[in-house]
Design a protein that fits this description.
By secondary structure, the protein is of the alpha/beta class. The protein has three helices and three strands; from the N terminus they run βαβαβα. Helices cover 39% and strands 15% of the residues. β1, α1 and β2 form a beta-alpha-beta unit.
C-alpha cells in the first residue's frame, strides 16, 4: 500500500500491520524524519528523477527500501 498521506498510512498500518506500506514523496525525507518513519514504513518512494545515491543510502541505513 502506498500513499502520499502519512496519516492514511498510519491508519492503514494500525488496522492491517502485516501489509507493507510505502510513503510516496517528492524527495527523500531528512535523516531525522526517516528515523521517525523507521519501524512502521517499509519503503520510501520519492520521485525517481530526484533520487540520488546519497538519498537512497539514507533510506537503506534507516532500514527501509526505495
Amino acid at each position: 500500500m502506498g500513499s502520499f498521506d502519512e496519516q492514511a498510512l498510519r491508519d492503514f498500518t494500525a488496522q492491517l500491520p502485516d501489509i507493507p506500506v510505502a510513503l510516496i514523496a517528492y524527495d527523500v525525507p531528512t535523516t531525522e524524519r526517516l528515523g521517525g518513519l523507521a519501524g512502521w514504513v517499509d519503503s520510501v518512494s520519492p520521485d525517481f528523477r530526484r533520487l540520488q545515491p546519497d538519498g537512497a543510502a539514507r533510506v537503506f541505513e534507516a532500514g527501509m527500501g526505495v
